[in-house]
């Protein structure tokens, strides 16, 4: 299709029939270039929601930053599908111009729009966003605070550690959970006590996240807290605690982990088998062999792998000695 035909389609965007406007955008998909950007931006104000959504999709493909202000306006569209399309577009835009527009709109009165703007900032990793993000940690809307935590985690700046630690006490459990995960990027002895305290959070998902982070820390100091957390009321938390004790090669946890091989919950039996395999304690061999008849195939596989790991570890140790 030559430029003249493209111009015909662009003029069709002004047709009174919304169906013809929709068709014009669909036909532009294969030929649209820089000359199509401004008309498509105008189409973001079209009276027809389908036209607006199609225009957003095509602008997303073109990736021209001139579209960003119009896309931001669409975050307040009265149609949910248009708002969702606009948020998807912003996640794909990169560049200084994009960040400038996103930052300038962060005072939007709608908390859902503010949240989407932060999502748009996430992948840009622009340091100009640091101060606004730290401010957003105090936003009255929990969803905004949550996205601010996640976006700061992407930047991984030491100056954000203390403000993120404050979010461990946020009234919203989802904010506390992502704060634990975000601080996991800065994992180290200085944060160990924070993560151990999070094992006692009132929300089980926060406790589970804390267990995961402690397992990744490589810190033996996490083991006593994890051992205590084996008594958690939620099996989902127990599973993550067991896995982390395995990652930390916690020999002191072998007795407790052996008990979990008899759990009524298959996920816990499987987690305990894997953990014992990572710890490589010969004490577990007999109990792991008993799991060869477990009714859950995943438990049987975990036990088989654990037996192999322990056996190889013992053979290696005997050769070295």
Summarize the structure.
This protein is mainly α and 321 residues long.
Report the total helices: 20
What structural class do helix, strand and pairing data support?
mainly alpha
Instruction: Give me the CATH architecture of the domain at 251-321, please.
Output: Alpha Horseshoe
- The overall pLDDT average reads 94
Order of helices and strands: HHHHHHHHHHHHHHHHHHHH
Alpha-carbon distance between the termini?
A: 76 Å
Kindly identify the CATH topology of the domain at 251-321.
Leucine-rich Repeat Variant
Largest sheet report: none
- Tally of extended strands? 0
The coarse silhouette is elongated
The assembly state of the depicted protein chains is: single chain
What Rg, in angstroms, do the CA atoms define? Answer: 27 Å
Proportion of helical residues: 55-70%
How would you describe the overall organization of this protein?
By secondary structure, the chain is an all-alpha fold. The chain has a domain at about 250-320: Leucine-rich Repeat Variant (Alpha Horseshoe). Helices cover about 65% and strands about 0% of the residues. It contains 20 helices and no strands. Helix 15 packs antiparallel against helix 16 and helix 16 packs parallel to helix 18. The protein is elongated and about 80 Å long. The model has no long low-confidence stretch (mean pLDDT about 95).
